[in-house]
Specification:
With 249 residues, the protein is α/β, with parallel strands linked by helices. The chain has seven helices and seven strands. It has a seven-stranded mixed beta sheet. The chain starts with a helix and ends in a 35-residue tail after the last strand.
């Protein structure tokens, strides 16, 4: 099941969503190295973190998968969003410095092909930062948050997947150690549970955050992809047949 853009915006507008956003931002801050004049692309639903980490970037784009939907961003300025297919990004080779994935890889039809496409568009020293639900975590088991949809990963699975796509994981972090409860009395203790979880049960975090660098010393095999998805505009009538004109007399 894929997360819809309406559901994602609604979740991050709630108290639980805002706390989850801050928890993930803390995890990203611990591995996010400053790059001067970087070209940053967010793939998935990355708007809350692009606002925070894209301030000093030369340019920032928000790519949203077609199965998710898109919204205009930033508010009050020229739109920097695009509706894309994650295996065919509308970018030239080696054109961006960093790609941030949130609510993306767990919904990808073929995660390996998605990462290979990101490898293509990244500059030689480019980095990909991935945020995915943790297979061992509690958040992946409840569907009232976006982290309970899609395919969760373990650290070992993410490490293997990144290496298969010619990335070298360089830094790891975790977030969401408190339970995904909507009860206000429980949310009051989220700071205490977050700090305690980082020390006592890091393997049971809600999400895994990993930064990986593009690897250049190994060639990629050239293989033709088996299929291509064809997008149809939502306003295009489905199943309509062209009316036949009567024969001319």
């Amino acid at each position: 099941m894929n997360s819809d853009i309406v559901d994602l915006r609604s979740f991050y507008a709630t108290t639980l969503g805002r706390i989850a956003e801050r928890s993930i931002a803390m995890a990203l801050s611990s591995i996010w190295a400053s790059l001067p004049d970087e070209r940053l692309v967010g793939l998935g639903y990355t708007l809350p973190w692009l606002d925070r980490f894209g301030v000093d970037a030369e340019r920032v784009f928000a790519f949203m998968p077609a199965t998710q939907g898109a919204v205009v961003w930033p508010v009050g300025g020229p739109s920097a969003t695009a509706l894309v297919f994650d295996e065919e990004l509308p970018l030239a080779d080696s054109s961006v410095d960093r790609v941030l994935l949130v609510h993306s890889l767990e919904h990808a039809e073929n995660p390996r092909e998605t990462l290979k496409e990101i490898w293509r568009v990244l500059a030689p020293a480019g980095r990909v930062v991935v945020v995915t639900p943790n297979r061992r975590g509690v958040w992946a088991r409840f569907e009232h948050t976006p982290f309970g949809t899609g395919r969760p990963f373990s650290r070992a699975q993410l490490n293997s997947l990144l290496r298969e796509a010619n990335f070298t994981p360089s830094a790891w972090s975790d977030a969401l150690f408190f339970p995904p409860s909507k009860r206000r009395w429980m949310l009051r203790f989220h700071n205490l549970l977050e700090r305690t979880g980082r020390r006592c049960w890091p393997m049971f975090s809600g999400v895994i955050v990993v930064e990986a660098q593009k690897r250049l010393y190994q060639g990629l095999p050239v293989a033709k992809r088996a299929s291509r998805r064809v997008f149809v505009p939502v306003m295009s009538p489905q199943g309509a047949q062209t009316a036949r004109m009567p024969p001319a007399l």
